[in-house]
Prior knowledge:
Elements: E1 4-9, H1 21-24, H2 29-43, E2 46-51, H3 55-70, E3 77-80, H4 89-98, E4 102-106, E5 128-131, H5 137-150
Parallel strand pairs: 1-2, 1-3, 3-4, 4-5
Helix pairs in contact: 2-5, 3-4
Amino acid sequence: MAKPVYVLNGPNLNMLGVREPSIYGGKSLREIGEDCVAAGTALGFAVDFRQTNHEGVLVDWLHEAGRAQAAGTAVGAVLNAGAYTHTSVALHDAIKGAGVTVIELHISNVHAREAFRHHSFIAPAARAVMAGFGVQGYPLAIDGLVAVAAG
Ligand code: CA2
């Protein structure tokens, strides 16, 4: 069975395609998930695509991804933590503690937006950071995660 890449999405990303298409595009999260599965399949990997509005659930999922990565049964995680990116020491600690390889992903270019989006608590714990590619960033991030995991 193909190893999974975790793609973890945080708060409000379930609203994609419903509101604010000028910032986040018109695709729904379901469609983005389908694009991720296609990108993973093309690379020989499964994709475990999830979304939650709850910080602690993201912490639990990062621990799960870290355990799976340590056991050699997962590749790592693409993480769009949404607004928790800018607030959450808990997510920083979870990534470090779990030892999971994380690609921090944002649909929008957070550095071209409000100042409060310029700081990330996740970036220092992440293997790489991507922002501003729109929803095409998801398959690109999967590609990048697989590339860095291969060494
Ligand atoms: O650009 C990104 O991917 C963000 O992580 C999206 C977050 C935002 O807080 C980050 O600063 C950057 C917000 C996701 C909310 O998505 C919505 C989509 C449609 C309607 C309302 C919210």
